[in-house]
Structures are given as structure tokens and as C-alpha cells.
Amino acid sequence: MALRVTVWGENVHDRHDPNVKAIYPDGMHETIARAIRAGVPQSAVGTATLEQPEHGLDDARLAATDVLIWWGHTAHHKVADAVVDRIQARVLDGMGLIVLHSGHESKIFRRMMGTHCSLRWREAQDRELIWTVAPQHPIAAGVPHPLALERHEMYGEFFDIPPPDELVFVSSFSGGEVFRSGCCFKRGKGRIFYFSPGHESFPIYHDARIARVLCNAVSWAGPSTSPMDTRKSIHSPTNWFAR
Amino acid sequence: MALRVTVWGENVHDRHDPNVKAIYPDGMHETIARAIRAGVPQSAVGTATLEQPEHGLDDARLAATDVLIWWGHTAHHKVADAVVDRIQARVLDGMGLIVLHSGHESKIFRRMMGTHCSLRWREAQDRELIWTVAPQHPIAAGVPHPLALERHEMYGEFFDIPPPDELVFVSSFSGGEVFRSGCCFKRGKGRIFYFSPGHESFPIYHDARIARVLCNAVSWAGPSTSPMDTRKSIHSPTNWFAR
Amino acid sequence: MALRVTVWGENVHDRHDPNVKAIYPDGMHETIARAIRAGVPQSAVGTATLEQPEHGLDDARLAATDVLIWWGHTAHHKVADAVVDRIQARVLDGMGLIVLHSGHESKIFRRMMGTHCSLRWREAQDRELIWTVAPQHPIAAGVPHPLALERHEMYGEFFDIPPPDELVFVSSFSGGEVFRSGCCFKRGKGRIFYFSPGHESFPIYHDARIARVLCNAVSWAGPSTSPMDTRKSIHSPTNWFAR
Amino acid sequence: MALRVTVWGENVHDRHDPNVKAIYPDGMHETIARAIRAGVPQSAVGTATLEQPEHGLDDARLAATDVLIWWGHTAHHKVADAVVDRIQARVLDGMGLIVLHSGHESKIFRRMMGTHCSLRWREAQDRELIWTVAPQHPIAAGVPHPLALERHEMYGEFFDIPPPDELVFVSSFSGGEVFRSGCCFKRGKGRIFYFSPGHESFPIYHDARIARVLCNAVSWAGPSTSPMDTRKSIHSPTNWFAR
Fold this sequence. Notes:
Four copies of one chain form a homotetramer.
Chain A: E1 3-9, H1 13-16, H2 18-23, H3 28-39, E2 43-49, H4 59-63, E3 67-71, H5 81-92, E4 96-100, H6 107-113, E5 120-132, E6 147-156, E7 166-173, E8 178-187, E9 190-195, H7 208-221, E10 234-235
Parallel strand pairs in A: 1-2, 1-3, 3-4, 4-9
Antiparallel strand pairs in A: 5-6, 5-7, 7-8, 8-9
């Protein structure tokens, strides 16, 4: 059965900033979607964007999504709380969630983490080196060690997230900063992966090595099949589980 | 310097249910506060309750609190969101938070966890046995293995919380259920401990062994002194940290 | 490509104890092997036992093994240290390792853990209930919650292992004890799963629900493909990674 | 009651290499011991070295040690296995262990970890920046963020250790490498801290900021008081724990 992936793009820079448009003429979400289509066999990949009704994420769409990828930056505050509630509920019910780069300050990521998700940043010309610290992790499979990005925005510690359940990548920057750049979290029946590359003004998502990480992450985050109902506490009389 | 502890009690059952009143004539919060005063040297312990203005937790009070203990059950929805926002901010800034029993469904605990925090439950006469799975943890110091509660409400798995950063206690119940009953979380600059005993209709907080756990937890959760400002992302020009 | 699994059985009780022989006429290892063959598509499953030269685990055999399953009990001390060294090296180089039941005190498990791996035990007629505490984990897929074993040996806490990297199952016993019965560990490039069922005098490995756990675990532990060489520290001149 | 600390030094470079002798005229262990004495109130700090009988760590000495600090480099193979067995047993029974720098390849650290503990290295003139990723951790209290070492040996990933139970520090180096430089592990009743500074040819242990980390670590690792006997599995008849 197909793995149903929805790539959500804020789609603001992509339409209004000529530099970003030049790099991502079809929008960042479309470039990411193509990478998943090419790299994850049997995936069915669609996109959704901020300006669509309900940001393209109504109940039916989320119910039909196994893994949601999230890229946002300048318009986090425009995402409706009701949509955030809905995404959170779906993640806890087993949908995978992959949050990219500036999505660290999105409502949905902060909601899932319970923390500020703040960090240090610098838009300059730092070289970023992404190091694997969990070689046995499926998200690291086939990823160079290090993976060098010649120019990227700096994201540095302290990154205000819960201690990751699994830490996969740690980055360094020319300026000397470090960053936990690939982090796994288990929340309810769902799995979450945060990955810090790609700033909109660099062609990061055209990079085959980055695409490899995204495809690995989609496969890893693929939905839980657990039939448990975790939405509410359950009254359980003595011997409820016995035949 | 004194460790400033605030015990927050919902104080509803304690005033309206004669059975609870008989067990906790001064309110559950007061019994807990006495246990901390007796067991944590140099502690300065006060209380706050739901019916007070701002639930007794205005900015000044929270700023003067190193560790907040939370017991709530029947009136979670009456806690103002603005107060929850404030508590969350203080925890992320270094205040310890200890959430007790039915506080698992409080707004503040669900906010900090990002999950439903649902579980299984049964008000019966189960015997609960609390087992230590982290003997090196300061919260387990001096706690019997097992600690037996002759009669207690059953709380069972699946408990919808993030994987604890440290798992200290696991309970079993006569009915056969298990529960992760003592769980540590690190969030921002703060430390959180969830401890599942005590239901209001049993004299759990009068038990010296339980008091020992609470005192250990208060000492463990004691405030972070980190000067980091984590409230917002910080622009950091190249070499910002060099002299 | 086939997933190459080797099931190692101590094969002592199975040959010498008529009760065990009655339950496992072909040996426990053979019953386990059949379960994997039936449940893991494209697996190539063989067995090895203590009494074979080098316990059936010479260099060539280990090199051709992707996941090793280990059941031992009464003859841990008869396993040659040189073979233990070899297994440890293969796990660190990416082979999966699944340790069952009384294998908790095997040389290889204690070697990988660095701890005593001691526990409490009782051969009686306890009912064991296995509860899932990580519903999103692939090893829990399709496993009943709880999974009840009507009669089993009791294994109880404190279980002297490192805090598991992922805790999947927690068991309770009629006698009131609890046990971390399904534990994941990442070590080097390899993955390790400890699963506490099945004592030799109960037909645990004939149980389809247990077989499901074993098959899930084999798929999860499947070998790392990382090309990193971790056997020795590596001298790395400045810019070693640049082209 | 005093916290009894033993600083173990290999004491080979310190006696035979004039450069090291110039930096540490009394031996590295003595410099470290002085830092602990000055910074941990009520500590009783002694030293032990490789060339002493039983390396200065006979049964009586270990029994009287609450926290053991370990620095070794060139003579790991000269440490007797019987002494390693003894240290391991004491750690599992509650003694704290702090392993420094090149101690990553010591017998005792590899024994406790179960992994190769290999890494990348370069003796050059890299600047090391040590970043705090756990601001709430007691070992990070009062430590600058970042803590800059103008010149230090490079230690880089992949560092072949189990995923740390708590990750406190991550370092970057001028050459671009990163390293998990401050790692906590819980093993049995004991606590272990690995801290990667200081190479013998730099005056790292004279640095007050590094001394602060060591003192914090000693206080954190301070001995467990748990009365549990974890040395052997314990037969436990039904109701063993009831009065």
C-alpha cells in the first residue's frame, strides 16, 4: 500500500522573493515533494500550502496523510490554531511529522515539544558540516559523514527542545557553533523528526544528499498501525482485558 | 539560601467531599506542604489554590517560586490559560515542577508534554506496588523497594506521555496493570517530575514513605541557575562569543 | 536480498530434560527458527548450538549473519570468551542481536551491557501480562495489549541493565512484581533487543503472539549498512574530509 | 560526611615528558586533586597511580572511595584486569566514575560501555568550543557557554559510545569536527561522567572553568546510598516482600 505523504509549504518567500523564486520556481514544497517521489518507492506525495482553505489541511486531508512534512518561516502566526490542534491530534494518533529548518518556531513544533524551540542564528556564509552520531539509525543510511553544505544559515545551541529520544545528526558551522541538527521524538503513537537544513536562499533541497535524509526520514516516520485509542483516559474495570 | 516551594492544590474535593475532608482537614496542599517543610532542610513552603485570584499564582508569586507542586483533578478546565502560559514560561526558565496523580490531565502537564497524557484508571481497592528501576537516582533514595500502598486507585498503561528522560518508578496493581509512576523530564532550563500516587480518597500524602519521595523530588527539581536567555531566538553575528 | 538470521540455542535442557524435550522435540532453537522463517519474508534462517565447534559461530558464520538470536541458561560459563569477543565485534560492526529470557546472564549480554544484568526470579505459576509502553515502536506492531501468558517464570526488578534506549514492553506478574521485558539498545553500528519470555518449561515460543514479537524484532534489528570503521580511533589530519 | 574522592593518574607522561612535567610538575592527578579540594566543600581527596601496587586501588581503597576520577593514555594495557574487575564492581555498587580525555580507551571505560569507544583525533592547534546542550544539568552550572579552549587536541565523531543517558556538552573544533564532550551514563547503582578535555600537553586542568566542570561532576556522581544488592540474581518466593 502506498505511503501517503503531504508536503506543507508556507509558500510566501517562494512567491514573493525573486531570489527564492529563482531557486525554487515551483515552490520549495514542490521540490521537496519531487525528492520524496523519486526516493521513496510506493509513495503518493501531494502538497498543501498556507494560502489554501484551512491551509490545505482539512480533516479529510490529514486523515489521508501518513507523513506530513512542514516548512514554514515568516508566517507562523498565520497558521490557524484549529489546524494546529488537528495536526497535533493526528500525530498523537500515529501520523509521522517531519519539521524542517525554520519550522522550529512553527506553532505545531512548539506545541509538540512543549518548549520555546528557540536557538541562535546568523544569515551569513557559514559552511555547515553535518555529522552522524547514530550510524545504526535508518535516517543516517547512505548519508556522507560529514555531509558538507558549503554555505548555509547558522543555527546554534542552545536549541530549546526536549532531549531528543534519538539524536542522529550534529552540525558544526564555520563560526564555531554546534547544533543538534537531526533529532527524533516519539509522541503518542506518532514519530517526529526535526532536520535543520534548508534555508530558503540556498538550494539545499535540490541536493541529493539532503533528499536522501528526507526520504529516509519519511520511511522511518511512516505511520503507526497501533489500534490503541489514546485520546481519552479509559475506565477499566477489574479484568477488563480477560476473555 | 532557602528553597522556595509552592504547593498548589485544586482544593475542591478537600472542601466539598466529607470523606476527603476527613482525611485532609486542612486541604491536601497543606498536608503536602507540611511534609516538605519537615523533610527538606532550608525550605520555605507556601500554598496556593484554585479559588484565589489568579489561582494564587501571579507573576510575583511564580517569580518567587523555585519548585511548584501541582495537584488537581476535577477542575482542570477552570484553570485560566494565562496562568498556564505563565507557569510554562517559568518552568522553561528554570523552575522545578512536580505534578501529582490526577494532575496528569492538568492543562500545565499536557502543555509541557505535548501529548494527551491519557491513561487507564479504576477506582477500586487495588494494592499498588511501586518498584524502583533507577536505584542510583536521587528521587529513589531511601524509598522501599517495593513501596506498597494497600489500597489505591489503579492507573495503567498506556500512559500517553513522551518517553521519560529518566524512569524512576514503575507500579503494578492487583488487577495486573502496570504504570510508569515516577518519571523525570527536562524541559528548557527546568526539571519536571510526575508521580502518580495519591488519590484524594486515600491518606497517601500522610504516608512517610510518600513524603520521602516528594522531598527527594523537590531537592532534585530545585531551580536551574543558568543565565541563558532561551525565550527568543538570538541573532548571533560571527564571533559574538569572542572577547 | 535475504535477511540472514542465526538462532543460537544452548541446547542442553532441550536434549536432557524430558519435559523440555516434550515441548521442543527439535530443540528450542529450531522452534524459534521456524517462527522467523514463517513470519519474516525473505529471511534465510539457520541455527547454531553450544556443542558445535566454536559453538557454531566461527568467523565465516558470523560474517554471514545479519541478526543473531541468543537463548542460553544453564551453560553460560561454557561459552568460550573468544567467541564472545567475536560476537561483540560483529554487533558493534552492525549485526543485530536479540537476547531471550535467561540469556540476560549470558556472557555476550553482560559484555554488551557492562552491568551485572541480575534480576529477581521465581519458578512458579505466575501469570505474566506484557504491556506495550511504546505503541509507535515497530516491535510492538500487532502485539496484543496486554499479551497474557497464563503461566511463566517470574522475572522482576531491579533488572541491572543500562537505562534502555527504547523501552517497549513492561510486564507484571501475579505475585506483584514488574519487569522491563522488552528493551532496545543501540551499541556501535548494531541494535540489540532483549525480550524476557520464554522459560524452557513452558511452550512460549510456540505462541503466535510471541512469534510476532520475535519477527518484528528481527526486522527492526536488521543490519546497519554504515561504512564507518569504528574498530579503532582514526588519526584525522586537518581537512581530512575535504576533497 | 566527607565525599571521598580518589584521582587516579597514569603518571607516565607526567614523569617522562619534559613538556608535560613543565605543565604538571606534581603530576596531572595532583593538579586535578587540588581543584577538587578547592571546589568541593567537605571533600576528602587522595590520589593513586599506575606504578603503585595494585595501581593504588586495592579493595580497601576502592571501598573507601565515593567517586573515582580516571586519567590514562599511553599505558592502558598495563592496567591489570583484576583491578578493572574490581572498579567495575564498585561502580555497579554505587561509586561514581569520572573518565577524562584519553581515558576513553581505558579498559575500565570500554568495560562499562560495552563498545569500542573509538573516535577521531588530531594533535594540532585546534580551538575547541564546548557548548552546553543541557542548561538544567548540575554539571553545567556556572560553566560559560561556550567554554573556549584556545588550543587543544581534536576529538571528533563518530565517538563509539552508547547513546548517553544525558548529553551535557558538545564541542566543535577549528577543523570543523564535533564531539559529544560531556556525557552521563547510569550503570547499576553508579553514575559515570565522561569529559573529553584535557590533553597532557596543554594546561587544561589548571583552567578554573574546567575545574568547575570537574567539581560539578564529582558532586553529581556522588555515591548512591541504595541498599539493593545487585551482584546476583535473587530467588524471590511469592510474597517475599510482604511483612
